[in-house]
Amino acid sequence: MDNIMSVMAISVVVEGLVSYAKMLVVDRKIEWQIVVAVALGVIFAIAYGIDVFALLGMKSIIPYFGNVMSGVLLSRGSNYIFDMFKTIRNFSKTHTDAGKDTAASE
């Protein structure tokens, strides 16, 4: 994955994680369902070696970082994962098409 796509993928993930973190505490109470979902997501990601970032061609230099972040993403549910990949794919397609247009005009 090229640098622009890496930045796009990370920015989509960070935005999602920040909005997810805001849901963790509501009315000064911790939402235990989110804590359980994150814990289960991380456990499954580590146990099964799931690393969404490695699938996108980005390998972390910090051991298990990709697995832990992937577990947090998994805890958001399948709709979030699907939407995230769709957003990244659409950006990639737009970026690739723009590159073809530039090359064709030269």
List descriptors.
mainly alpha, 2 strands, 106 residues, two-stranded antiparallel sheet
Produce a short descriptive summary.
With 106 residues, this protein is mainly alpha-helical.
Describe the fold and architecture.
With 106 residues, the protein is mainly α. It has one domain. 75% of the residues lie in helices and 4% in strands. The protein is built from 5 helices and 2 strands, in the order H-E-E-H-H-H-H. It has helices at 3-22, 32-47, 52-55, 65-76, 78-105; strands at residues 25-26, 29-30. Strands 1-2 form a two-stranded antiparallel ribbon. Helix 2 (32-47) packs across helix 4 (65-76). The chain is globular and about 50 Å long. It starts with a helix and ends with a helix.
Alpha plus pi helix count = 5
Q: What is the beta-strand fraction?
A: under 5%
Helix content: over 70%
The low-confidence runs, each spanning 5 or more residues with pLDDT under 50, are: none
Mean pLDDT, nearest integer? 82
Termini Cα gap: 24 Å
Q: In total, how many domains does the architecture comprise?
A: 1
